[in-house]
Structure formats: C-alpha cells, structure tokens
Specification:
- The complex is a heterodimer of chains A (285) and B (313).
- Chain A is mainly α.
- Chain A contains 13 helices and no strands.
- Chain A folds into 2 domains: 36 residues; 203 residues, Orthogonal Bundle (MetI-like fold), CATH 1.10.3720.
- Chain A starts with 11 loop residues before the first helix and ends in a 6-residue tail after the last helix.
- Chain B folds into 2 domains: 68 residues, no CATH class; 172 residues, MetI-like (MetI-like fold), CATH 1.10.3720.
- Chain B has a two-stranded antiparallel ribbon with strand order 1-2.
- The longest helix of chain B has 33 residues.
- Classes of the chains: A mainly alpha (285), B mainly alpha (313).
- At the A-B interface, helix 1, helix 4, helix 5, helix 6 and helix 7 of A face helix 1, helix 2, helix 3, helix 5 and helix 6 of B.
C-alpha cells in the first residue's frame, strides 16, 4: 500500500489554485480582447441597421438587418476603390523593385558606407511629410501630377520604402552565407544570386514587407486629401465624401467604414504571423 | 537576444570591401542607386522647395507671384500663438499616446503570453484596431461610439453615472488621444509579445527554482530582456503618431476652438484655407529642424536597438 506511487493528495489544492489562476488570467485576457474589439463590432453591427434603428437611445441590439446601406455604398465606390487598388498595388510593387536590390547592397554585398546609407534611409521617415505639404502641392501643379494616380504611387512608394529596406535587409542577413558562396562557386552572377538564391529564401519576409506596405498605402488619407480631387481619390476620400452633413447617416457611415476597412482587416487576420515579423522589422523572430 | 544583427558575423566579414577596386565599388553601389536616387528626389526635393518658399511671400489666392520676404515668415511663425500651440499639442498627443499604448501593450502582451482557452482568437481581436483604416476608426468613434445622444460609450457608462456626455466637445483632446491609443496599442502588444516569446524559458525556470516571485522575475529578467523591443515600439510608434491627421480632421476638425489642432492639422489649414504657402513652409522648416534634433536621439536609439554601435544593451 505504502509503496504504491500515489499521487500526493497534498498537491491537489495547489494545482487547483494554479488552474483557477490560469483561468482567471484567461478570463481577464478575454475581457480585454472583447473591450478592444467592441468599436469594430459596433461598426459592423451598425452597418446592418436601417437608419432609423442606428440613432436611438438606448442603442438597439435587436433589429431587422438590412443590406440597404451596403448596396448604397457599393453603388458609389467604383472609381475610389479602383484608385485605391492601383495606388496600393502599384506602390507596393515599386517598393519591392527598388527595395530588394537596395537591401542587397546594404547587407549581402555591402557598399562601403552601408551604415550611413541605412541611417539616411530611415531618417527620411522621420521628416514629417506634413511639413512640406504646401510645396508638394505647388510641385504637383507644375509637374501636372496633381490629382493623378501616379502622384500617389510615387509618394506612397517613398513613404514605405525606408521601412521596407530595413525589413528586407534584415531578412537577407538571415540567408546562410554557405548558400551564397555555393552559388558563387557555381558561377552565378549577382542577379542570379538575388533571384535564384536569396529571393526564394526570403519570400516569407517579402510577403510581410508587402503586407505592411499595403496596410499603410491603403489607409493613407493626408496626401490623398491634399493632392487629389476626383481623378485619383481613394477609399478614405470616399469615406469622407459619402458621409452626408445632415439627416440620418450613421448606418451609412458605418457601412462605408466597414467596406473600406474590411480588405486590410481580412488580410491582416489571415497573415498574422507575417504581420508580426514585418512590424518588428524582421529583427524579431 | 533576438534583436541583434544575426548576420553581422560571417557573410559581411568575408565580403568587407577592403581594397576594393573602383569597378568593384560601383558594382556594389549599383543596386543601391535606384532606391537612393528615388528617395533623395522624392523626399528631399520637397524639403528644399519648402526651404525656398519659407523665404517667399506666396499666397495661392493672390495673383501676385511669389517674392522674397527675408525672415518675415519665420518671425510670424515664432510669434504665432496658433503655431506654438499646435506644436505643444503635437508633443502632448504623441507622447501621451505612445506611452499609454506601450504600457497597455506590455500588459496585454503579458496576458496573451499565457496559455488560455481561445488565445489565438483573443489575439486576433486585440490586433484588429491596428488594421482598421484610421479614417474609418475616426468616423466610427465620432459617431456610433461617442455621440452624446445615441453613442454606445454613454450607454456602456450609464450604470456608472455618466449621463449623455458630449465627449467631442467637452473632452476633445482626450477623445482623440483615446482613439490614437486604441489604434496603436495592438502594434505595441505584437512587438512586446514577440519579445516575451523569444525569452529563453530555462532562465525563467531557474529563477522559479531559486524561489523568485513572479513579480521579481518580471522586473529583474523580463523587463531588461524586453528593453530593445520597448525601444523599437516607442520609436516606430512616435514616427507614425506624430503625423496623426485623420483623427483630428474627422473627429474634431481641430476644435473646439483650436483645442485639438496639432501640427499636421495646422499646416493643412494654412495651405488649404489660408492659402499661405510661405507661412506654412516656414512653420514646416521649424518643424523639420525640431524633428532633426529629436531624430538625432532617435537614430542613436535605433543604432542601439539593432546593436550597430558600441551598444551596451
């Protein structure tokens, strides 16, 4: 009897305490998560309300859902979403085209003063673009780029390129040097080295870099508001313009806000891990 | 430690361009040039033009062309209470939101670092505010959330004696800052969470065996480990939050009065409503000079975070 490997009864209370403690932390985490999510949830719920149910006291939680506001949003968003997609995809591709070789020259096959290069690049991110908005407008007028989608592509590329170079560079540093040497012994040139050896290895890193660029470009309002009118107005501009100044508009506003936000939210949810890698500039694994 | 230049070792030592020939030097520089030239043209030229216009009197709405006025735009900017006020508000808004978002971020990350039921879903919910379009977030907060008559927040707070508060007129600055914090806490949480999960478990186990309490372990081991992550979060957060415009424009339009007018919004008004390109340019140049001073420290921090220099982390 005594020799039997009994589970020591004395440990049970402690175990129970540990488990309830763990559950307590879990409950707290859930409360925090839900609290943070409430505004998003409320946005989506309100988007399905008829206007008459959206502005009531107390707020209504039970109502007959309608797609009327969404239909209204989809009837007018055409040009805006097209501009947004072009500006976002265009600038992201340009960022990668410029960023990959630049990162290569700052990591794998570095130029002599690569540190200065890196710090110059990130320092441009610290200059507030808002400070130059007046002159930017004047430049845009003189170059006939005002209210053109090209202007947004150019500016969004400049906006995302510094961070992208830092990210891509950090991913490139993780490429094992033996692989690079093997490729060189095989007689691979620089371009083959980048496209054949480095790019396949860092492709997850490139995805997270692209993801971050997409988020910031899709969500950008300040430059679009100042430098576009109709020919290049993007989704954030649609959001602003679609909100009427009077009458009942809360459901419509919520539907437009939902439609404008959903693409990035969906992408972010699907690619969470990628997002973490990108946000920490690839330096954090 | 994970925030280090992992690849700094063999690859680069082997490829140090020591004694590299001129042609070799250009072969190295070539891939960098397109990006470098692009960045110089697109980001530096507007600032040079800004410098030029800051010495000019130039109004969009006046047919007269731009002409040289010396330092008058600068004296106007320095004596303008509106400009100084917006400068101070920018600092207050950025500092408050970055610090609070970081504190919340650390707390949330600690919560999410433990195993519990549905952790993945909870994390997904917490990161969502960062993904919401800032313009959408601003409009949803201003309307469905904070409206005095039908806003959800007033309803949620009613049991606590809050009665139809018009948040955007009585607590305008606070409301804008809350939305900034709401959007950037997830960002901080993710970075800190990555830091927590990179912490070697054996040191934590050892501390536990040695009888260290949870709090002492956190203070003595976890916080020092997290330091580079915290610095990175503060740095990136500040870079983006100092440019906050959408929330101000869409929630309060800088008001009531000028109580939420930060620098970006002030400059936007100068250009779009006062048509004062010269004045905005001078204000912009002053902003840039102040930014450079702050950025010099920030860059040093960057260098330390990524352990380029002597780095005593």
């Amino acid at each position: 009897m005594t020799a039997m490997p009994v589970r020591p009864v004395t440990r049970d209370p402690r175990r129970f305490r540990e488990m309830s403690g763990r559950a307590g932390w879990g409950v707290l985490a859930w409360i925090v998560a839900i609290a943070f999510f409430i505004p998003v949830l409320w946005m989506v719920i309100t988007a399905f309300k008829p206007e008459s149910a959206a502005e009531t006291w107390p707020p209504q939680f039970v109502f007959r859902p309608t797609l009327a506001e969404f239909r209204l949003v989809f009837s007018g968003w055409g040009p805006f979403v097209t501009h947004s997609v072009i500006a976002t995809v265009g600038s992201t591709i340009l960022v990668l085209l410029l960023g990959v070789p630049a990162s290569y020259a700052l990591s794998v096959y570095p130029v002599r003063r690569w540190r200065d290069g890196l710090f110059f690049v990130i320092s441009t991110k610290m200059l507030p673009i808002v400070a130059a908005i007046g002159p930017l407008y004047v430049i845009a007028v003189h170059t006939h780029l005002l209210d053109s989608i090209w202007l947004l592509i150019i500016l969004y590329t400049a906006m995302n390129l510094p961070l992208a170079i830092w990210m891509i560079r950090s991913f490139m540093l993780e490429v094992p040097s033996e692989l690079l040497e093997a490729a060189r012994l095989d007689g691979a040139g620089r371009i083959r080295e980048i496209t054949g050896v480095i790019m396949p290895i860092i492709s997850p890193g490139l995805v997270s870099t692209a993801l971050i660029c997409v988020i910031f470009a899709w969500n950008e309002l300040f430059l679009a508001l100042n430098l576009t009118v109709t020919n290049a107005a993007t989704m954030p501009m649609y959001l602003i313009s679609s909100v009427p100044q009077e009458g009942l508009y809360i459901a419509h506003l919520s539907a437009a806000a939902t439609v404008a936000s959903v693409p990035v939210i969906a992408v972010g949810w699907i690619a969470q891990r990628s997002l973490v890698r990108g946000l920490s500039m690839g330096a954090i694994k | 430690m994970a925030v280090v230049e992992t690849g700094a070792a063999p690859t680069q030592v082997a490829l140090r361009p020591r004694g590299a020939s001129r042609r070799e030097g250009w072969a190295r520089r070539l891939p960098l040039l397109p990006a470098l030239i692009y960045i110089v043209i697109v980001t530096q030229i507007p600032f040079l033009v800004t410098l030029w216009y800051s010495f000019q009197s130039y109004f969009f709405d006046v047919p007269q062309p731009a002409h040289f006025t010396g330092f008058s735009n600068y004296t106007t900017a320095f004596t303008s209470a509106a400009f100084r006020g917006s400068l101070v508000r920018s600092v207050v808004m950025t500092a408050t939101s970055v610090i609070v978002a970081m504190l919340l971020g650390v707390a949330f990350a600690v919560l999410l670092d433990r195993k519990f039921f549905g952790r993945g879903v909870a994390r997904t919910l917490i990161i969502t505010p960062f993904l919401v379009m800032p313009a959408a977030a601003a409009l949803v907060w201003a309307g469905p959330m904070l409206d005095p008559n039908f806003g959800l927040l007033n309803w949620l707070l009613e049991p606590f004696g809050v009665n139809h508060v018009a948040w955007l007129s009585t607590h305008a600055l606070g409301s804008v800052i809350v939305v900034m914090i709401w959007q950037w806490t997830p960002f901080m949480t993710l970075i800190i969470l990555a830091g927590l999960q990179s912490q070697p478990t054996d040191t934590l186990e050892a501390a536990k065996v040695d009888g260290a309490g949870a709090f002492a372990t956190f203070r003595e081991l976890t916080i020092p480990h997290l330091r580079p992550y915290i610095e990175l979060g503060i740095l990136l957060g500040s870079i983006y939050l100092v440019n906050t415009f959408d929330q101000v424009r869409l929630m309060t339009n800088g008001g009531p009065g000028t109580s939420t007018t930060n620098l970006p919004f002030y400059l936007y008004q100068q250009v779009n409503f006062a048509f004062n390109v010269g004045g905005a340019a001078a204000a912009g140049v002053i902003t840039v000079i102040l930014t450079i001073i702050v950025a010099t420290f920030a860059l040093r921090l960057f260098a330390r975070v990524f352990q380029f220099e002597e780095a005593g982390v």
